[in-house]
Amino acid sequence: MFVGYIAGINRYRPPAPTSTVPLTSTEPPYHKTGLANLEAAWADFVDIVGEENVSTKEGDLQYHSGSEWSSYTTKPNEKPFLVVFPSTTEEVSQIAKVCHHRRIPITAYSGGTSLEGHFSATRGGVCMDFRRMDKILKLHKDDLDVIVQPALGWEYLNEELAKDGLFFPPDPGPGAQIGGMVGTGCSGTNAYRYGTMREWVISLTVVLADGTVIKTRQRPRKSSAGYDLTRTFIGSEGTLGLVTEATLKVTVKPKSESVAVASFPTVRDAAECVAKVVGEGIPIAAIEVLDDVQMKCINDAGSTSRVWKEMPTLFFKFTGTPSGVKEQIAQVQRLAKAKGSKTFDFAKNTEEAQELWSARKEALWSVMAKRRDESDHVWTTDVAVPISRLPDIIEETKEDMAKSGLLAAMVGHVGDGNFHAIILFNDSERSTAEAVVHRMVKRAVEMEGTVTGEHGVGLIKRDYLAHELGQSTVDAMRKMKEAFDPLCILNCDKVIRSEIPKAKEVKAW
Q: How far from 71 is each of 118, 398, 457, CA to CA, in Å?
């Protein structure tokens, strides 16, 4: 007992009187993940949520450790000891209090669609799956806002909102849920017109590391009251707190919507057309690019109802009044032709619009369908640059991917300078894939862009942050992490490092 007391005293370090926390001044996180402590925690969780809502089944543990579409390859020891399924904010708070008292790491899980290793249990511990918290709690139609729980899918939310002529614009990949969308600060194809997740969250209910429950704001559309904690938690990837409710803005569904598709000789021609459309200020809803490799993958997969030209292709979405949509289509058709478009097809009705847009949503799955065998992996990553540099980075990255010899496709929300690479590789090709991604990220930073436009940092991008933002900015983030989560139990190791890396662990810039 006395030895444990002395050890505890020796581990305690008073907060540094500095505004930032360099990694070199930190101690590695100290967690208690011994079997006896975890088994005792299991009993605590059973008391809180019931035995049927606590799982130690191997299948559940593996499922909550990673995914086949994640860029991060989970190590054998990176899995939780158990998965717990709370149903209320109060249960989340009680679980957090147990973990805080017992110094057990927590990894939050909602849709599991994130791509950069966001929910890998690098320290073991507990995975908190929010699947029982999937409800629309209250729609304020007159105020154009809705209160929801974290495991609600954005697609189901929009199905329900459509009954009242409303919709929620952020539209990331299929299966994404509100908790993860808040965590990564996601966006999607509608971001060019409507902005990202940050613009559509009014308030959050958050459980902090020690179980304290806070609400970041009330429901007005604007407020100058205090620090903007809402946006502090958006994009924090579960490292600062656990989101249990979100008050979201919604908007009126457009009266008319249409889609057009234009193919181009080169990906640079397509990118230059995007810059021209943006520069003209045409108020279209979305501009997406798919390169020739991606279009071939979609054809080969046969997942859409038509055969596509296997050329770099732009997908345009138009919304507004019927006359406004018609005018936008005519303007874009003129600009596309001036930039050398080979085809320009536009939808004449809703069914044709859905058919044309279907190819964009099949991008990732069509590349995954090209896997040669079970040993193949897919690396999906993104960057964003100022719109004037988009043609340069897309052309240079396209050339680099072609030289690599890997099956690598390019897609992107190019209206706001954001694009993605989807790369297929096996274990012997991993270093080649890593090098392609590294050069793509470096290229973006050197063009005054960002290492991730919407996927988030996770484990894969954390060592690039200092190159984009500066080391002192990353050290300020570490100070924030230390303030909100002094024991480093919330999604440890994500966004910023919590201990000094081993030799050769960080790729040379």
A: 10, 19, 11
φ, ψ dihedrals at 403, nearest 5°? -70, -25
Q: Which two tokens stand for residue 441?
A: 């990220």
pTM: 0.92
H helices of 256-384, in order, are 267-280, 292-301, 322-338, 350-361, 363-368
Averaged over 366-384, what is the pLDDT? 92
3-state SS assignment for residue 137 = strand
pLDDT band, residue 361 (cuts 50/70/90): confident
Tens of pLDDT, residue by residue over 313-333, are: 999 999 999 999 999 999 999
Q: Which residues contact 89 (CB under 8 A, 6 or more apart)?
A: 205, 207, 213, 244, 245
Quote the CA–CA distance of 359 and 295 in Å, as a whole number: 8
Phi, psi of 379 (to 5 degrees): -115, 115
Please state, in angstroms and as integers, the Cα–Cα distance from residue 503 to each residue in 382, 500, 506, following that order.
27, 9, 8
Q: Say if residue 297 is exposed, middle or buried (CB neighbours under 10 Å; 0-12, 13-18, 19+).
A: buried
97 sits in the region (left: phi over 0; alpha: psi -120 to 50; else beta) called: alpha
Kindly report the number of other CB atoms within 10 A of residue 402's CB atom. 12
Q: What is the mean pLDDT of the chain?
A: 93
Q: Let me know if 340 is exposed, middle or buried by CB neighbors in 10 A (0-12, 13-18, 19+).
A: middle
Residues in the chain: 509
Give residue 245's Cα distance to chain centre.
Answer: 18
> Which residue, 114, 155, 119, is CA-closest to 454?
114
* Per-residue pLDDT tens over the stretch 196-239: 999 999 999 999 999 999 999 999 999 999 999 999 999 999 99
**Confidence at residue 68, expressed as pLDDT on a 0 to 100 scale:** 81
pLDDT bracket for residue 14 (50, 70, 90): low
What does the alpha-carbon distance between residue 158 and residue 11 come to, in Å, rounded to a whole number?
A: 49
**Cα angle vertex 458, ends 96, 301, to 5°?**
120
Measured over the CA atoms of residue 460, residue 68, residue 286 and residue 188, the dihedral's sign is negative
Are 328 and 318 within 8 A, CB to CB? yes
The C-alpha atoms of residue 157 and residue 141 are separated, in whole angstroms, by 14
Q: What are phi and psi of 316, to 5 degrees?
A: -115, 140
